[in-house]
Amino acid sequence: MDKRIFLAVAAVLALGAAQAQNAEEAMNKAGCMACHAKEKKVIGPSFKEIAAKYKGQDATAKLMEKVRKGGSGVYGPIPMAPNPPDKINDADLKAAVELILKTS
Q1: Are 49 and 41 in contact, with CB atoms under 8 Å apart?
Q2: What is the DSSP letter of 31?
Q3: Is 80 annotated as a binding-site member?
Q4: Is residue 35 within 8 Å of residue 42, measured between CB atoms?
């Protein structure tokens, strides 16, 4: 493999890892992890369950709106409180939703 291609691929992978880490930090700071986990249902659904439900769909905007407005009934009767921009900004929310949708 050409060294330049290898370095470009390595840079893209490093950027992706950094973005994932930033998204996880934002979710921790916003309190998302108090109710959600990657692999198992806590109070709310697991990220794996959310990713499976929306697999193959372009659901980022839809899920960002759900997080902003809150709601209940999709995964059971326990409501999710609204999460305004002062709790998690739009860029971090988008990164978090994209990370969740990539969970397998």
Answers
A1: yes
A2: T
A3: yes
A4: yes
Cα–Cα distance measured from residue 57 to residue 39, given in angstroms and rounded to the nearest whole number: 21
Check whether 32 is labelled as a binding-site residue: yes
pLDDT per residue, tens digit, the chain (104 aa), is 566 665 454 444 444 444 557 888 989 999 999 999 999 999 999 999 999 999 999 999 999 999 999 988 889 899 999 999 999 999 999 999 999 999 98
36 in a known ligand binding site: yes
- Domains of the chain and any CATH numbers: 3-101 (1.10.760.10)
pTM of the model: 0.78
* Residue 80, helix vs strand vs coil: strand
